[in-house]
């Protein structure tokens, strides 16, 4: 049976390098800068990477993944497998054992009841959980005893390492969040800002879309870690200023998401104060097509929902034409250099999981024009903008404030202008765009635009959980407080059926084939997602900061407990 391979080599042991410091808090403060400010410290209420990464310093899952994509235990004694009996022979359950004596940062015991509560919190039908796919196929989570967690699935689960694995699915403390279930979840400001966790740090102060202040968790399971007594994340500004604050001025120790052009990277590196670090996983910069009508003329609650299909983008010929007009090789040259590659896939890696979908890699302006002609969009008044039935072919294209993304917007607008499409550009503060605030009109989940651009990725080499986001049920809508990973409201029963097949398939080669087919269904077959660039995860750290191991499969701050000040 090929299951062992399919389970990502989970039984491999993980040996952490010896600590480079002798006592907790000996190295003072570590300062991080995020160009996208942190909006919330609860990853279940935000799909924004900046919120997920910040909260990972405080909230932890049972297990994570190292930079090689290998599962590593965090709050448990070992990774459950078929060989050690932790995964049942019928693949219907997985059992985790908590580390004895594990404590929350407030000094109270971590128990299996916290896991039971966390699952109920995310799976509550009255609430909106940004990470709902992490609980797909879960029939129950039970506390066998105080330290034993058993997850039972609705059907055999070839890859049982989704729930409570990785930064998207950490444990919440039942005692703290008990009153925050269902519709009440986003109203719990104190809990969502200052969660009690098991991570190396605890929150001491939080200013929304500005600063997170932390101190070493006095009850962290390793008494010698973290090396830093305090930590601070300062948000806002832009990627270039964040990078400069590490690489040139030395004001900060670590800058996440330094998405700046290659020439700027080279100039900053020459200052000799820091280094850029990059890791390639599955991160893809893409344009999402809105399948629903975002018109402000619609009543609130119906806007950008399945009740109203998009008046222009519901036609696949239009969506395909927009993709054909883009020259992805130029985007890579302008934005990423060696740090990116053109792609047509939402799952570009690992190679065995990537489709041979390459049809988008060659720009085809004339082909795009022909498709729009076929769709009935012509320029009847000679103003250079196509129209149909009295409506202009005009689109609102939004993304975050970022120099590379604004360059991409300008280039794409020019290419779309060549084929007769009028494009209005909008740039939104990234802290707002990725903030998950149900009351804001400018979040990427609410999607009050025709197309939007950002990057997203699978947090596991096996992309089952990630591909689950495109199920019909995961579309953000008012009933879920606009939470949900199916940003473009894509809904195809054939996709849902094929995903269900992936969930129950044990043979590795068949799983890879199904994943490729699912990838193609949302890209080349439907053109709902227009991938642009397979980009590396690029950040920067000071030469005085040791222990950094950039990770594209988990939180980039996955081993912040091991960071130290280079003496």
Largest sheet: 7 strands, mixed
Mean pLDDT: 93
Total number of strands? 22
Helix and strand composition category: alpha+beta
What is the CATH domain class of the largest domain? Alpha Beta
Tally the structural domains. Answer: 2
Based on the structure given, which CATH architecture of the largest domain is correct?
A: 3-Layer(aba) Sandwich
Structure explained in plain terms:
This protein is of the alpha+beta class and 567 residues long. The chain has 2 domains: 3-13 and 25-243 and 537-565, 3-Layer(aba) Sandwich (D-Maltodextrin-Binding Protein, domain 2); 284-535, Roll (Dipeptide-binding Protein, domain 3), CATH 3.10.105.10. It contains 15 helices and 22 strands. The chain has a 7-stranded mixed β-sheet, covered by helices on one side. Strands 13-19-12-18-16-17 form a 6-stranded mixed β-sheet. The chain has a 3-stranded antiparallel β-sheet with strand order 4-6-5, covered by helices on one side. A hairpin with a 2-residue loop joins β14 (387-388) and β15.
Give the arrangement of secondary structure elements.
Elements: H1 3-6, E1 29-34, H2 49-55, E2 63-65, E3 71-73, E4 93-97, H3 112-123, E5 138-145, E6 148-153, H4 174-177, H5 189-193, E7 201-207, E8 211-216, E9 230-235, H6 239-247, E10 254-255, H7 262-269, E11 274-279, E12 284-289, H8 316-324, H9 328-335, E13 340-342, H10 365-374, E14 387-388, E15 391-392, E16 394-400, H11 403-418, E17 422-428, H12 430-433, E18 451-456, H13 464-467, H14 493-504, H15 508-522, E19 529-535, E20 537-542, E21 545-546, E22 564-565
